[in-house]
Amino acid sequence: MQNKKLATIGVFGGSGFYKFLDDIEEVKVETPYGMPSDNLFIGTIAGRRVAFMPRHGRTHSILPHLINYRANVWAMKSIGVERVISPCAAGSLQKEVKPGDFVICDQFVDWTDGRKSTFFEGPIVTHPSAADPYCPNLRQLAIETAEELGITVHKTGTVVVINGPRFSTKAESKFFTNQGWEVINMSAFPETYLVKEMDMCPVNISLITDYDAGLVGDVAPVSHHDVMKVFEANLANLKGLLFKMIEKIPQGANTCECTRTKQNSQL
Q1: What Cα–Cα distance (Å) separates residue 196 from each residue in 46, 53, 168?
Q2: How many domains does the chain have?
C-alpha cells in the first residue's frame, strides 16, 4: 500500500461514464493482483480529495466479466480511500422501476461465474458477513440527496448480477422478475463487496436504462445502443447527485462499522 493519502473518496465509473473531474492528477497504481482498469484520476470536490476510475477503462475496452475488480479496489485502498461510490447502468426487472429512475440497492444476488470475488485466500480463516452488503450511512446519504435534487429514487432494491457480456434470455429475465428482484447488471458484483472486504464503505447507485429482455414481451428487448442513449440523457443527473453527495460526506475519521469488516470476519 502507498503511504501517502491522496484521496478519501472513490468513484467507479461504468458504461457511458468515463470522465468525472476536471483539473486532475493522474496516478498509476500497480497492485499485487495485476493492473487496474485504468489510472486513478484525482481531484477535489468541496475540499474533499476524490479518486475516479472508469471500471471499463477510459475507452470502454474491458468487458464486465474481464474487469480486474480486485486490482481496481486495491488501487483505491492503496491511496487512502475510505468510502467508494459505485454508480452503474442497469436494467429493470419490475414495471414500477422505470428507465431514468435511480435505485439505491440494499442487496445483491451473485449470478456470475469464475470471477475472483475475495481478497481472503488464507492462511488466516476469514468469513465476512454479506448479510447487509452496502453501507447504511452512504445509502441514506444517496437517498436523501437524490430526493433533494428531484430525482426519482427507489430506496431499496436487489440487484442480480449476471456474468455478461450477453443480456438475459426472456426465460432468465422472467425468472429474475418472479423472484421479486428489481435490478439487473453485469458489474455490481464483486466490486462493492470487495470494497467492504477492504474495510471501506460501499454504495451502489443503479441508473435504470431499460426493461430487461423487454420485461417478457411488454416492451422491445434491450440493446446496448438504447442503454447508452438513456444513460447519457441522465448523466447530468448522476454527476449532480455525486457532487452533492460528496459535499455532504462527513470529514474526519471514518467510524462506520464497514471499517471493521475484516476484524469482525476472522475466527
Answers
A1: 25, 18, 28
A2: 1
